[in-house]
Amino acid sequence: MLKSLTLHNLALFKKQEIEFNEKMNVILGETGAGKSLIFDAINFVLAFKTDRSLLRTGEEQMRVDAVFEPISENVKKLLKEMDIVEEEELVISRSLHSDGKTSLRVNGTPCSQTFVKQLASELVDTFLQHENLQILKAKNHIVMLDKFCDNESLKTDLKLLIEKKHELLKKLNSLGGDESTRAVKKDFLQFQIKELENANLKIGEDEMLDERIKLLQSSEDITEGIGTVLNSLEAGSHSAITQLGQAGRIIAKLGNIKSLPEIADRLQATSIELDDICSELKDILSEIDSDPLELDRLDQRRDMIRSLKRKYGGTIESCLESLKKFNDELDEIIESKEISQKINNEIDEIERQQLSICENIHNKRVEASSVVKTKLLEELKDLGMKSTQFEVLFERKEIGADGYDDVSFVFSANKGQEMKDLAKTASGGESSRLMLAIKNIFATSGEHKTLLFDEIDSGISGEIGNMMAQKLASIAKRDQVITITHLPQVACVGDSFIKVVKSTQDDTTISHAESLQGEEVVKEIAHIIGGKDVTDVMLQNATELFKRGQKFAH
């Protein structure tokens, strides 16, 4: 519930703290005193309204702080999702600067308007005299009816089945879809597998090809160069190897003088090293001369490998991995007919269960709609709407989270008139009474909110006023009610009374909210009954009316 509201520089309010109790809070005061500004402040702090005209003239900043206590499990869940520290109280603060910038905080944490509106939907219901009420809108009717007939557990079961079916459909799709789609995919996989298997790829083959092609492309220069080198190193009696051998032998014959034996060994070693070099050069020549058509074949092979690498991941390794993956997918498709049949059987069973649950939900709704109709017409009759027509309409749709029903409430205030959607048909006064009747019927334990009623009793008097007061008092036994009223019967069933007074101080207009107690309440009710000048008779009537209202309220 709304525990307190603090206003800073909001229109006529300079600084004001207002406390509310958990039951019926009645806001009283003369027209124009600023009563509706309290509701403007609540709508502002809950992110429903941003109006720079609310900023008090001459001030740089307006701020509203709202404290709610206790808070519901749904609110706690929302706070947890946003990592906002949960405390005993929920404090929502919003400020508006003269440049139009606003800021919102929940328990000290900056938050978006979207999130605060989510919170607000769990905290407050606002019922204003000339607005389309959320409670009357068709999109909310199915929710209300399901709460009335306690369909939530069935809807939870239905939701689980819908999620399970969705997962099975995803699995079925992963097998390649229907039989025709799988056949197409199978052919394509077989083509890819054949292409990769026929290539007979080897890891590192591309690098070896590049090296071999580079060698063959330079074969003419390499052959000529190696031939020249071999000729100088080993051909004829004057070759380098022959000359080195002779030099080594001559030095060796000179005997063991100084380092000559070492020089002879070095010459011999050099001769052997040159002989090895010649051998390697001859091997290179033999590789080049092996096949004159080899270069064309290698070029074609390299082009084919490059094409496969572009298609299957950029490397030979990725091509081989793709081959394995394609073989696995092909195996799955070959086996998928049996698997898909099993999945389809599961889906058929789930759809059968879904339909059974939807029928149960529908039957409970139909049964509940008859009760709702009877009770609503009785409630409206009490409120002076004796010719009202009301029906709950059902339309079949595809199965979804709410079942297969579209639900809407239709209404006509007068016999002979076509019944239409509540929000489109009901006038301002009719909407007020409809809202009270619906709220009384659909009230659910454990879901307590703060309900704001802004002069919904406008244009109502007499016995209908008494009935409206009783309905509001009945609601206040379950939910916190904050109402602005000019109807004495409604004021008399209050638990807490707040009077808004407007005054002029130092050429400045200021509104102030003050708590009324005892005789002050009776006197204010007398003002509502008879106007400014209160007589003893008016006070006596107000006292009697107040006692009667309090007796009913408690």
SSE topology sketch:
Layout: E1 2-10, E2 13-19, E3 24-28, H1 35-45, E4 61-68, H2 73-81, E5 90-97, E6 102-106, E7 109-110, H3 113-123, E8 124-128, H4 141-148, H5 152-174, H6 179-199, H7 205-217, H8 219-234, H9 240-253, H10 260-288, H11 294-311, H12 316-382, E9 389-400, E10 403-412, E11 420-421, H13 422-425, H14 428-442, E12 450-454, H15 462-476, E13 480-484, H16 488-492, E14 496-505, E15 508-516, H17 519-530, H18 536-553
Parallel strand pairs: 3-13, 3-14, 8-12, 12-13
Antiparallel strand pairs: 1-2, 1-4, 4-5, 5-6, 6-7, 9-10, 10-11, 14-15
Determine the strand fraction and express it as a percent band.
15-25%
Number of strand segments: 15
Largest beta-sheet characterization: 6 strands, antiparallel
How confident is the prediction overall: mean pLDDT?
84
Unreliable spans are none
Helical content stands at 55-70%
- Oligomeric form of this entry? single chain
Q: What's the tally of helices?
A: 18
Query: Structural class, judged by helices and strands?
Result: alpha/beta
Given the C-alpha coordinates, what overall shape results? elongated
Spatial order of strands in the largest sheet:
2-1-4-5-6-7
Query: How many angstroms does the end-to-end distance come to?
Result: 19 Å
Radius of gyration from the CA trace? 46 Å
Description:
The protein is an alpha/beta fold and 554 residues long. Helix content is 56%, strand content 18%. The protein has 18 helices and 15 strands. It has helices spanning 35-45, 73-81, 113-123, 141-148, 152-174, 179-199, 205-217, 219-234, 240-253, 260-288, 294-311, 316-382, 422-425, 428-442, 462-476, 488-492, 519-530, 536-553, and strands at 2-10, 13-19, 24-28, 61-68, 90-97, 102-106, 109-110, 124-128, 389-400, 403-412, 420-421, 450-454, 480-484, 496-505, 508-516. The strands form three sheets. The chain has a six-stranded antiparallel sheet with strand order 2-1-4-5-6-7, with helices on one face. Strands 8-12-13-3-14-15 form a six-stranded mixed sheet, sandwiched between helices. Helix 17 (519-530) packs across helix 18 (536-553). The mean pLDDT is 84.
